[in-house]
Structure formats: structure tokens, C-alpha cells
Amino acid sequence: MSKYSMHLLVCGGTGCHASESDAIVCNLRDELEAKGLMDSVQVILTGCFGFCEKGPIVKVMPDNTFYVQVKPEDAQTIVEEHVVKGRKVTRLLYKDPVTMEAIDDSKHMSFFKKQLRIALRNCGFINPENIDEYIARDGYQALGKVLTEMSPDEVIKVVKDSGQRGRGGGGFSTGLKWELARRSVSDEKYVVCNADEGDPGAFMDRSVLEGDPHSVLEAMAICGYSIGASEGLIYIRAEYPLAIERLKIAINQAREYGLLGNDIFGTGFNFDITLRYGAGAFVCGEETALIHSMEGLRGEPTIKPPFPAESGYRNQPTNVNNVETFASIPAIILKGSEWFSSIGTEKSKGTKVFALAGKINNVGLIEVPMGTTLREVIFEIGGGIRNGKKFKGVQTGGPSGGCLTEKHLDTPIDFDNLIAAGSMMGSGAMIVLDEDDCMVSMARFFLDFTVEESCGKCAPCRIGNKRLHELLGQICEGKGTLADLDRLKNMSLVIKDTSLCGLGQTSPNPVLSMLDNFREEYVSHVTHKKCPAGQCKSLMEYVVNAENCVGCTACARVCPVNAITGERKEIHYIDPSVCIKCGACIEKCKFDAIFIR
Amino acid sequence: MSKITSLADLKKKREELKTGMDIRVKAINPENVVQVKVAMATCGIASGAKTVMEFFLEQLERRNVAAIVTQTGCMGYCYAEPTIEVKLPGADPVVFGFVDLKRADQIIEKYIKTGELVDGIIPVNYQTIDLKE
Fold first, then answer.
1. Domains, in order of start, for chain A
2. Are B82 and B21 contained in the same domain?
């Protein structure tokens, strides 16, 4: 029914656009017109292919030919050779970086293997509100296999051998955690799914629960069988209403099919799942605080040991795993531990979902094998920095992580490398910063969050973070001294060493890593009272350039606080003690007569 | 719904569902069934995916296009919400981003009816695993 037999897709992403994709489109259309092919071949601009390094890209459908670094003058060759004669233009084909062979079908390009979706395998494919679609994609087969063919110890061995580590941030071995819970003796045990996703910028758990809730339910049942539990609880924040709704639907459908409940698959194994709602406190993502919250107590952490595996919910052995950790389990069971451990790095196996946010072109959710570099994630999959600005850093691990810089771009991402670089995996949020971001303000921004979210139980976190926050505030306002920088560092180290739980132990990380990696910027704030990124308002001064000012009075009229004075046709003056640095005058001035000093 | 009481039951169910979907798809019209999936996670809905889905449901029927419109979860393209995937019979699925009602209308009139692509195509650049043992 299509009148077009061929489509030429030209990448219109920001990177390719800058290198003339518009001209390529024009030339291709002209060539087709000249050959009278406009009715059967269509040229269209697409979104970013994520392959900006080799742009501009032209992809030919339906044969999947992938041309790289195409120039506008190549349009003629592509049309004459490929479109008319059906011969691929070898010199424009992508060449494998290892074998140097030209690849003529993009499906064979290693680039498209950079993203591998395991935890997200069904997200965006199936209807999350229909259990049949999950079953049609081999859903609940892993549970069936476990219950009918494997002993609990065998299941734990597979999970252990797979090398999977907890995706919630800590990176503890999933299999080992299960084993500890199994070894604890009790006839009442619990499986808990930690869906209290709270890192600013992280939304992978929500996406999994909203897109593929059954994968989590199935994995929890598998876990229940392995450790000897018949009850599962999902601790989810009430701020995720759609995820809650879809979980409820999924639980009901699974019960109706008998995939949750008593005597599952006729094996005598009983398992059911209920939901527990959190009020959205960050600290409740910490497993002991989470358990207290589920018990109806204040969401405060307690000292470990005892670990939840020995004494957790209702003082019974409890296994707590994160959503993304659970979502990969059915795949590990069906495809085996060897398959999973063949992906990733030596000590971090499998894939990790990252949420890309901040000053990056392709803001989104991606899943890549462990060991992928930051450069690949940010500049290839993420499409680079927005508006052609310069990359400055990337905050990984949310407010508990650190800021990595240019020198870390080629570090393979895994649990241990990130810690060695002064950050952490965390839940997988990546906030990309560009040259306009001030590293003092950024550190203060993350501390804003931790100060707000500290439960207040222990003094280092409650008082220490507050003091850190105040110090950063003073530096932003130009009231800091060089001694304050040492004070920041010392206080951070004390908070890390003496806080009770993970929240306080990690909250100074942004300060420490930014201080380390951007010391000159901090020094500039305290000694020269200048903010190099131009973000700290107190350190800016709006000044009239006498040469350009014509005295039109436009700025004075738009100023909300009447800080600008001056007669008509005379040079104006901005009173710095009144000015609130809102920038309205700069926007209004047609003569470039106002600048920031 | 009947209970699934054994693994054999589940396997049978899976095969039924796989072929069942095929039969259902083919029964309507072997050549002309279009499948539209709308990414309906919170973020998609917040950007207007629900209106877009309703539009497709209503308009495809009104314009006599035999199609199956379903919702799905997050596709990962936050920068381009709302996003949808359209699969024409015999063709690879195509993902479109920034789908407002105007673009939805273009997608029906141009891509679905004539195979002519419209703006907003998002090249899919990932692999997904197959759980088949």
C-alpha cells in the first residue's frame, strides 16, 4: 500500500544538524527530482541516531544501509549508485573499528549493541496491564522452571554465579543476600521489594513498575521460593500512583491465573504479594528504615548488624532487593548464570539502567552493559551536550555520589571504578553539567536535598550537613574564606565517618568530589569573589557600559526594583545595593549597554 | 480466567497466546492491520500520551483503518514524549516522537495510509534480549 519503495533517513540530531544535514536533505531531493524518483523514494529528517561522532548519518530503508560522515556533495553518488543501480556506496559505509571491514547492514553494527536491555526488556513492548502479553513473552516461565526443576539452593547458586550485584546503589551480591536469608532459621520470612526510589533524577524503578510489573512479581516469587518465604511486600512511595495502579492490576491478574496464591503450578508452594505505601522520605530507601516504616514506626535507620537477613520485618528474616535487581532475575534464571556473567566487567556483571538528565541532548532512560564508558553514554547514546556547550562534569549516584569530570570520560563504568573515582553507582541517575553550571551552587543544591531528607536521628548527619550547607551558602554569597574550604573538607570527612546510615555516610560526597575536581573554582569564589560560571548572583554586578548607553530609559522602566536611574538621553546607572540581578534589563537593552561584571 | 495449575499449562497458554494473537491479527484483515503502541508511563501521560491514544483509537476507527492500538510502558525517549511505535504489516516498526494531535493526524494520513514517513522519527538504537532458552 506504500507508494514509496525506499526511504532515505537523514539524521537531524543536533550534532548532525550542525554538520549540514539540511543541505544533504536538499541535495538528495534535488537528485531524486532530476531522476524523476520523487514519487517512489522519500527523504526525511529523523531524530538523533546517537552516533554523532560519525555524523552526518544517512540510513537507507528497507535494506538498513548505514552511511556515515556523509557530505552534501555525496547526495549525487548515493542516488545514482544506491537508489538507481542498487549498488551500495562502499566508501561511505560504516567500517568496523576493529576489523576495518565495511558493514552494509546496520543490524550488524557493534554500535547498536551498545545498549542491551535486560531489566527493561519488556518496557515499551508489552501492555503492562495485560498479563497475557507478559506470558507471550515467556513471562512466568522462570518461576515455573524454578518450582518444578530446581531446588532452592540451586536457584541461589545460579543467582550467585551470575555475579549480579544490587542495583539500588550498594552493590551487594544478590545471591549472597539470598543465601544469608535462606540460612536464617524461621518458619516466617519475608521478601521485600524496595521501590522507594528517591534520588533526584532517577526514575528507572518507576519505569520498570509502570512498564513491566509482572517481571518484579515473578522475581519476588522466585526469591520467596529460594529463601523459604511465602509473603512478599512491595514498599512503594505514594507519589507513584500509576505504578501502584499497574502493580495492583498485575497482582490481581497473577492471582486469578494462580501464579500468585496457594499451590502455585501444583507444587505446593504458596506465595502472595501485598503493597505498602511510603510517604516519600529519602531515608526510607535505606533497608532498615524501610522496614521500620512498613511496621508503622518512624522511618529511621538502625545500626546493622543485625542485618535484615537475620532480623528484619516483624523481627523475622527478610530479604530486601531493589526493583531493577528483581527485574533481571527471570532472565538470569532462563538464560543462565554464564550468560549473565559474560556481560559486563570482572566484578560488575550484567547491565545497568541509567537515567540521563541535565544538559544532555537525549534525556532518557538507557540500559548498557557494565563497563561502558561515560563517553559512550554521554556523547554517543546521549547525543552530547545541549546547545553545543562544553562538557563540565556528570554527577552519578545522585546526592550520594560524586561529580566526575573530563578525565573520567574513558573510565569503564562499574561499581568499583566509580568508587575509585570518588563517586558511586547509586541508583543510576546521571546529571550532566555543562560550562554554565557552578560547582559550588551544585554542591549546595545536592546538600539542600540531603538536609531536607535527613531523618535527624544522628547528630553528624542532622547538624553536620546543615553546617556544610551554610558554609556553601556563604561561599556562594562571597563571604567565604580559604580556611572555609579546609573546614568543608574536614567536616565532610567527619560526617562520612560518623553517620549512622548510608544517607549521612554519603551525603558529603558531592562536596568532596567537586572540591577535589574543581578546587580552582572554589578558590575563585573565596579569594577573588568571582563565580567563573556566572551563576552565583551575589558575586555578580550589573553595570552600564557608558559607550553603548544611549539613554533610552527602556531598562529603567523594566527594572522591578527601580535600581536604575538616569535622565532621558543620558547614561544610566545601576545601584548595586538595590539590584536583585534578575537580568530583565539585559534582555530589554537593544544596545548591548549592560553587562555582568 | 482459568487457573494455570502446572508449568505445562503455562507453556500451552504461552503458545496459545502467541498464535492467538496472530489469528486475531490476521482475522481482521490479512493485509491491513496496523499496530500502534503508545508509551504510557507517568511521564508520557504528563506530556499528553493519553489524549494521543484516545485520538488514535477514535480516529483509526472513524477513518476505517483496521488497527490495534495498545498502551505500553516507557520507551526511554524522555526528550521526545509523547512517543508511539507504529508497525505496518510487513515492515519494521517505526518509533515517532513529539506526537501531538497534529502529528498524530499526519501519522494516520501519511504513514499509516500511504507509507509516507513524517517528521519525528526516533532511530531505535538498542538490542533487547530474547528469553527463549
1. 6-112 (3.40.30.10), 131-338 (3.40.50.11540), 351-434 (3.10.20.600), 439-528 (1.20.1440.230), 541-596 (3.30.70.20)
2. no
* B24 shares its domain with B60: no
- What confidence score (pLDDT) does residue B30 get? 44
Other CB atoms closer than 10 Å to residue A101's CB: what's the count?
11
Please determine, for residue B13, whether its predicted confidence score (pLDDT) is greater than 60. yes
User: Is residue A442's pLDDT more than 70?
Assistant: yes
Query: Is B89 found in the same domain as B39?
Result: yes
Cβ-contact A334, A145 below 8 angstroms: yes
For chain B, the domain total comes to 2
pLDDT at A587: 87
pLDDT higher than 80, residue A597: no
CA distance A242 to chain B (A): 7
Closest CA to A286 of A179, A199, A390: A199
Q: Around B107, how many Cα atoms within 13 Å sit in the side-chain half-sphere?
A: 30
- Specify whether B10 is located in the same domain as B51: no
CB A166 within 8 A of CB A177: yes
Which helix (H) or strand (E) segment is A415 a member of?
A: helix A415-420
Residues B35 and B5 in one domain: no
Between positions 76 and 105 of B, the ones with CB within 8 A of A are 76-80, 85, 88, 91-92, 97
Instruction: Provide the chain B residues 19-78 that lie in CB contact (below 8 A) with chain A.
Output: 21, 31-32, 37, 39-43, 45, 70-78
**What range does the domain containing B8 cover?**
1-29
CA of A569, closest CA in chain B: separation in Å? 47
**With 80 as the cut, is the pLDDT of residue B22 above it?**
no
Q: What pLDDT was estimated at residue A120?
A: 93
The minimal CB distance from B115 to the residues A2, A141, A210 is found for A2
C-alpha cell at A407: 578525565
CA A345 centroid distance within chain: 20
Residue B133 counted as domain residue? no
Number of other CB atoms surrounding residue A34 within 10 Å:
11
d(CA B67, CA B89): 10
Q: What is the mean pLDDT of residues A407-411?
A: 93
The 3-state DSSP composition of chain A as helix, strand, coil percent (nearest 5) reads 45, 15, 40
> Is the minimum CB–CB distance between A576 and chain B shorter than 8 Å?
no
Per DSSP bridges, beta strands A351-358 and A231-237 are unpaired
Looking at the domain assignment, is residue B128 inside a domain?
no
Lowest-pLDDT range, A41-50, A266-275, A531-540? A41-50
How many other C-beta atoms lie within 10 A of the C-beta of residue A232?
A: 25
Given a contact cutoff of 8 angstroms between Cβ atoms, the answer to whether A4 and A41 are in contact is yes
Q: How far is CA A210 from CA A118, A127, A239, A329, in A?
A: 16, 10, 13, 18
Please check whether residues B24 and B75 belong to one and the same domain: no
Phi, psi of A591 (to 5 degrees): -115, 15
Cβ–Cβ gap B5/A124 under 8 Å: no
The answer to whether the CB atoms of A117 and B41 lie below 8 A apart is no
Give the residue-averaged pLDDT of A341-362: 93
CA–CA gap between residue A574 and residue B103 (Å, rounded): 48
Mean pLDDT, to the nearest integer, of A280-295? 93
